[in-house]
Amino acid sequence: MNNFRYAGKTSKEAFWIKGINVFAEKWIHAGGCAAVTNPQNGKTYVFSKYISGGVEFVAGKDSNGYWLFFVET
Q1: Which terminus of the chain, N or C, has less C-beta within 10 A?
Q2: pTM of the prediction?
Q3: CA 49 – CA 41 distance, rounded (Å)
């Protein structure tokens, strides 16, 4: 089982992970999903895994329309 840590959230079309703005790159579905928990409110989500600009992450929108990002630990 993979563990993921919260990397942040945004409502904008810009988010940097390891120096890469993932919104500026094509997202490739990496296969599979991951259950992740938003540490700000304790809600659990199941989001898809992606690769963008060589960076792997899990991302999806919460009920407020924010993109939540998680990276593997």
Answers
A1: N
A2: 0.91
A3: 22
